[in-house]
Specification:
By secondary structure, this protein is α+β, with helices and mostly antiparallel strands. Among the domains are: 111-228, Uridine Diphospho-n-acetylenolpyruvylglucosamine Reductase, domain 3, CATH 3.30.465; 232-314, Alpha-Beta Plaits (2-Layer Sandwich); 341-432, Alpha-Beta Plaits. Helix content is 36%, strand content 21%. It has 17 helices and 17 strands. The strands form 3 sheets. The chain has a 7-stranded antiparallel beta sheet with strand order 14-11-13-12-16-17-15, with helices on both faces. Strands 5, 6, 7, 8, 9 and 10 form a 6-stranded antiparallel beta sheet that branches. Helix 1 (9-19) runs antiparallel to helix 3, helix 9 crosses helix 10 and helix 14 packs antiparallel against helix 15. The longest helix is centred in the C-terminal third of the chain and has 21 residues, at 398-418. It is globular. The structure holds flavin-adenine dinucleotide (FAD). Residues 37-38, 82-90, 93-94, 105, 125, 147-149, 153-154, 156-158, 160-161, 163-165, 213-214, 218-219, 319-320, 323, 426-428, 462 line the site of flavin-adenine dinucleotide (FAD).
Length: 468
């Protein structure tokens, strides 16, 4: 970029030459709607200034070669490039904090191969999860990653945030689905890894791009694991009197090696419900279900039948269907208006060793009650280590409440770090948590910086993210 931080004028012409006029957007309406994701400044406590810049231009490559061309042009002029999947992230990973080129990967939308022998699918970066799901169905297959955001999020976006979904109890997070990647490096070179699940021939470089929010390069293709459609699917709900009882049951289920597809223990004002879904071949489902239910009963659980979990499962994508209709691809004012007028809330997703979760909850409750903030929901999702809280100020004027909420969020996230955990387990760091990453990574952040410097000396890839 030039010293006054403006885009070199010839860059837009060069982008048009490389991609065609239709695939280079400069209209203020487009620049606005492509700037950022589902995070609004009201939930970006302390990082509001990141929203001051808009994208300078939106580039829409249609192939790996197009991505190479854009990165070469950007590298030559030290222009920031912000990879954009569908902009459904909730941490501001696609906020163009320093302006530059938003690289919309949605034209890379082909399912290239489905291989029922290898149990993999090869897809382009911008394939929406729902489209992958629909392409696999006729083959009797399904993806392993099933977040709320199936109807809206892309394969590479979910790899870059290492998202978690409803089937993670059995199949793990999105990162576990990745068999191989094709990545364009900041200088335009293309790196591919081999499509085998494991390697001992050198370090596994695909892992460098899992959960790294586009700071090292652009994922253009991915080979992901796929699974047979379940021969049997069983839903179970179990009510508990206390969260601790349900949590201890979940920990015991995992310690035994029982692996429900869905593990969701939720405490809300109206009670504590453990939602379980078991999938797979029928004898395995039966055995897993029977043992999990006897563990729950031993821990004081009261079986509530299949109804609650079946309803929960049926509605698992509703929030994303709603987001698609009301906010996806819309200007920032529309996306942000969803939160206007509220006193504020935050949804925290914390990872801790199993032995620390209940102690963490107690200490976080103390911090929150001193600040007049309370958790309206506590949950365990997919594994006992993954603990969520939906928190909100109890009272107060909107501006003051939000500020108090922001301070409390900071404190409870730091508490998780101090107890040996991580401040976020599925949504990434984005602009929202950028300032806290070094605190968590320690010397690891020096390693991240060294890799960044080696791969991207001009710091073009998504600057201002991942603590960089
Ligand atoms: C209603 C709703 C429900 C949600 N439910 C869940 C949920 O259940 N589980 C969950 O984990 N998340 C959930 N999310 C968050 C969001 O869907 C995920 O973070 C998702 O992983 C982002 O996908 P995306 O394609 O929109 O990526 P984007 O938001 O566009 O990008 C996310 C990050 O990845 C980078 N990136 C995108 N594409 C590439 C690429 N090709 N190469 C390199 N970097 C890239 C971006 O720069 C950014 O840093 C939800 C969001 C909404 C709005």
């Amino acid at each position: 970029m030039t010293p006054d931080n403006a885009l070199p004028p010839s860059l837009i012409d060069s982008l048009i030459e490389a991609l065609g006029r239709d695939n280079v957007l400069t209209d203020p309406y487009d620049l606005d709607r492509y700037s950022g994701d589902a995070l609004s400044p009201t939930r970006a406590f302390g990082a509001e200034a990141s929203f001051d810049r808009l994208a300078d231009v939106v580039a829409r490559p249609g192939s790996t070669d197009d991505v190479r061309a854009v990165l070469r042009l950007a590298n030559g002029s030290a222009t920031p490039v912000i990879p954009f999947g569908a902009g459904t992230g909730v941490m501001g990973g696609t906020v163009p904090a320093r302006g530059g080129i938003v690289l919309d990967l949605q034209r890379l939308d082909r399912v290239l191969a489905i291989n029922p022998v290898d149990m993999t699918a090869e897809v382009e970066a911008g394939v929406v999860l729902e489209n992958l799901h629909n392409a696999l169905l006729p083959h009797g297959l399904m993806p392993g990653h099933d977040p709320y955001s199936v109807p809206i999020a892309t394969v590479a976006g979910t790899i870059s945030t290492n998202g978690v979904g409803y089937r993670a109890g059995a199949h793990g997070p999105m990162g576990d689905q990745v068999v191989a990647l094709e990545v364009v490096l900041p200088d335009g070179r293309v790196m591919t890894t081999r499509a085998v699940p494991n390697q001992s021939s050198g370090p596994s470089l695909k892992h460098l791009f899992i959960g790294s929010e586009g700071v090292f390069g652009v994922i253009t293709k991915a080979t992901v694991r796929v699974f047979r459609l379940p021969e049997s699917q069983v839903f179970e709900g179990v009510a508990f009197d206390t969260f601790d009882q349900g949590f201890n049951a979940a920990a015991e289920i995992f310690a035994l090696g029982v692996r429900p597809t869905l593990v969701d223990l939720t405490e809300e004002d109206d009670g504590i419900m453990f939602h379980l879904v078991f999938e797979g071949f029928k004898e395995g489902v039966q055995a897993n279900r029977d043992r999990a239910m006897s563990v729950c009963v031993q821990h004081g659980g009261r079986p509530a039948g299949p109804g609650p979990a079946a309803t929960y499962w049926e509605h698992r994508h509703d929030s994303a269907v709603n987001y698609k209709a009301s906010a996806l691809g819309k200007p920032r004012s529309v996306r942000w208006s969803r939160w206007r007028g509220r006193r504020g809330f935050d949804y925290l997703h914390i990872g801790l060793p199993i032995s620390k979760v209940l102690e963490y909850r107690e200490q976080a409750d103390q911090i929150m009650s001193q600040a007049g903030v309370r958790s309206v929901e506590y949950a365990i999702w997919s594994r006992p280590e993954l603990f969520s809280m939906l928190i909100a100020p109890e009272s107060g004027a909107p501006a003051e409440s939000r500020e108090r909420l922001g301070r409390t969020v900071e404190q409870v996230l730091q508490l998780a770090q101090d107890m040996g955990g991580v401040m976020e387990y599925c949504h990434g760091v984005g602009v929202k948590l950028n300032h806290l990453l070094e605190r968590e990574m320690g010397v690891g952040q020096d390693v991240v910086r060294a890799i960044k410097q080696a791969l991207d000396p001009n710091n073009i890839m998504n600057p201002g993210k991942l603590g960089l």
